[in-house]
Fold this protein.
Amino acid sequence: MSSASAPVARTQMLIRAPAATVFEAFVDPAVTSRFWFTRASAPLQAGADVVWYWDMYGAEGQVHVEALERPHRLRITWPNPVEWRFDDRGDGTTLVTIEASGFTGDPDARVRDALDQQEGFALVLAGCKAFLEHGIALGLVADHAPDAHVGTPSPKSPS
């Protein structure tokens, strides 16, 4: 598989909130933990190394923040590059696009990993949308693989 045909995971969602609000939802773990991971070692800042935790799965991920350009762009390495773009639509809405690339391994593994990340980021955007627009924590990430929980999850109930 040549680099020109390497898979890219891409998903997007319109969120009815200003770009600055949506951007901060991905930077501030107090908000992000309502729709994605359970906790983080710190907020995202340019050049920072942060750990994200999914306690229900006993999992964690090391994140390096490559770029943080409020409120338009966020780029991390986790372990492959992931970039968020926040397009302010001028009407109080934001089109969020997430793109992950740089998958490694044999061609089948690259495609499998790209599809897994695309599915995961679609869930994350749907959860973010529900939380920011309606104040509802859907628990999508925790409920995606309930048989993989390592203990009793502590889902955030709707407000």
